[in-house]
């Protein structure tokens, strides 16, 4: 989840019937596995396709997991419900822990060449008064912070996979355990896959997580507008994150590349309300929230193409021990937002999904390549290693957001005059970006 809220604060198939040979769409820009097209005949049951490892979801978690497994010599099939990569959304912030994973799976330098390194952060009031500034490397010389366009990250990961890995237009309809110790996946077109291993990377509304007994992600009481401003002749900003604190409303903006600037406006709302997609309505509501604020932020929003402006409710799930179901059920396991959706206030949603993928790949290799664990024990080991990191991060991200969204005038005055200028230290806010793992070999 998402972007620069760090420390302050994402072959149309033909419906068919059943049993004829599989037909593949022509390969386009990235590698895909086209969904089999089947014709139904009376009294003939659909063939069941056999796969060793099936990943559900071709988002950041799914593709990073697939690439991590590939680096360990394990091939997978990735099922994606959309008919192309879901390249909507704006930008995400990646800290050094995210970059360490991207380096390990071989795409770090490809991405670095396209995105600016962010040197530090500036905190301001809504009228533009500077409260505090920090330089990241003054606190941690190894720190690396960059905004990355979600679209480019997904395309870069997809290109690392072998041809026919991603099967588009493959929406999960039903999942159930089968008698042969495998998992039966039924897709919307009624084709079926029997998988030895299922890795669910299907996001905050994961049907697999629901099947495993997880509750829905919880709305935390605020929403965010996001956008990606475009400056064809070059954006004017220094490579810093700019945070703006108001009463019950906060915003941030950060240059992502020489021509693009990511921004968000976060606001309190008792309930998420209906989905809004009309750009004119979105712009109107944003301007109502930040009326009278610094002209720099207003100019950035005015430079934003309509198709990049979105509004999303912020949600999370706290993995309470003894209450929340385990991360796996048999040979089915959860990764990323499907397991631990978190608010973006620490900039760790995408970073943690990347971490999940590389840790899971190492555990699964112990079972599939070296035989030192069973698959079930590998999944349990993955959960045991990841939970102590994920659980406190989810809570901390939530508390940071709650604090920054307070609208009490006395509290906001204390924040602006005492807490931020005199008490906040950047070092403790960056400790969670320390993450180590064994090489992928």
UniProtKB/TrEMBL annotation:
Keywords: Monooxygenase, Oxidoreductase. It comes from the Eukaryota. Belongs to the 3-hydroxybenzoate 6-hydroxylase family. This is FAD-binding domain-containing protein. Residues 52-389 form the FAD-binding domain. Transmembrane segments: none annotated. Signal peptide: none annotated. GO terms for molecular function: monooxygenase activity.
